Every structure is written in structure tokens, then in C-alpha cells.
Amino acid sequence: MKKVLFATTALVLTAGVAAAEVTVGGDGRMGVIYDGSDWNFTSRIRIKFTASGETDGGLQFGGSARVDHYDTTAASTGSATNGAAGEVYISGAFGKLSMGDVDVAPQAALGDVSGVGLTGLGDYNEIAYVSGNEDPHALYSYAMGDFGLFLSANSQGDYGIGANYTFGNFMVGAGYEYVDSGTSQAGSSWGSSGKMHFSDTWGNAASQWIIGADASFGDVTGKVRFARYDEDGFDGIMDQLSLSVDYTMGATTVTGYYANFRGGDGYSGLDADFYGVGASYDLGGGASLKGGVVRVDDPGIAVEETRGDFGVSFTF
Q: Per residue in 69-92, pLDDT tens?
């Protein structure tokens, strides 16, 4: 149920000019969440503006931003003003070029396995794409039939490449990414919640390659992703494995996933497992009931707990 706004009255009334348009949408949620020790309420709403247009020569262009992407100060680093949030694009026969808060190439090619819950419950199903933490990025994508190619880079010297191929009910893909020394992505560490993330712990250059596949069989869809992270100047690697299964029965979808983060050599003490199960029920009109339970088992930082949530999500 997106509302369409015309850019200006003059533009709409001008004969022979293709009218640009702005659509307003968003998402929201409300419910309860268990953080491992206490139950609390959780709620959120986000409004999103999406603009699009077309040149006389047939090029499409546009962009999107949420209402929280405003520029709070002249030196703001998280706003749509300097590209760290929101995105813009131009596309045509040459492909599509996007800039701003966009996926890096391997993520655009592969994405993640399915998650559970109203809030994501830590999003432990997600691969930690190392080159995606410092925006703005530029992302180029090109589709040739069932084959997709993706390239990404930013001004800090980070880059990525990804590709996927779809045949029938199957998708396979691969990607590679590199982060230069001294940028905020280089190095890796573990957050207090147990989820792996990348930060400027040592300031070394690093690289990561990712492979993945999806398969659908009737009402069942399976996904798997594997990534290996290697840091220059440090004798350590990090492997990430994620897999999920979705089963759809009419308006109900049941999801389960497993993820493992395992270190080798210099990271040999890191070995964490995550299990998630959840379900969603489509109420129609953009509303769904969602809930999930996640088990975190991370001996490395002595975290072993169960989290859960339940509520209603909205898209409009």
C-alpha cells in the first residue's frame, strides 16, 4: 500500500515530460522480547521515501532514504547527505550503478540464509561481510540472463567481486572481498553478545572469500553459506558456516537455521554455535505474526543463553 507523490505540480502539468515519482512506504513492529534474563516490550517504525525517474534516452535513475537518515551536523558520518545512509542509482543497458549505503558485491550476489524472530534476535544467521562496514560504497551490477555479476569499492581502498547463477530451482554463487590496512573493517573481534563482527583491532589488511547455494523443492527452501576470513600480518583465519531451511504451508512459514563461527591458528580459541527456530503467519495487508527462539553457545566468551521474541510486523 505505497502512496505516490508527484515531485512538483509543474512537472505533472508539463506535457511531453515523463513525470518523476516519489513513493512513501515503511515498516514497523510491536511485541515482546526475551534477552536471556528478562522480558521487555519492543517496538519500532521506519518511514522510507523512494524516488524514481527516467531520462529522455531511457536511462532509469532514483534513490531511497529513511526519515532517520537526516544530517544532524555538518560533520555527520551517518546521514544520507554524505552517502553513509540511503542510496542513489542509475541504470540502463550497461547495468546498474548504485552509491551510498549499498550491499558490497559478495553480499549482493549471495545475501544470507534465513533468520528468525520479530527482531532478528541477534541476526546470527548472517555472514559478516568484511568490506561492508564503511560507507559510502559504489556497487555495479549486471545481469546476463541467469548470470549476475557484481563489483563494489569505496574510497578507503576496499573492494569486492561477486557472481551468481540461477538454473531452475537452484542458485549458486561466490564472492571475494578485500579491505585495506587501517580502515575500520580490518581485523576481527567478538561482540559482548557473541556475534562476530569486524573492527579496527589491529589495522591489518584482510580478505575473505564466500561461497553459497540455494535450492527449492516444492514448499521447502534450503540455503547454505560458507566464508573464510584471512588477515594479513596475523597468523589466524576465521570460518563462518550458516545454513537454513524454510517450509511454507499456506500463510505460515516455519524456519530453522544453524550457524558456526570457528577460528584457526591465531583464532583457535574461537568456536561458537547458534541455533534458531521461528515461524511467521501472513495476516494479509502487509501485517504478519512473527516469533522465534535462538540458542547461543559461545564458550569463548562464556555466553550460553536462550533468547526469544513474538509480535506483529508491518510493511506499508
A: 665 554 445 666 666 678 999 999
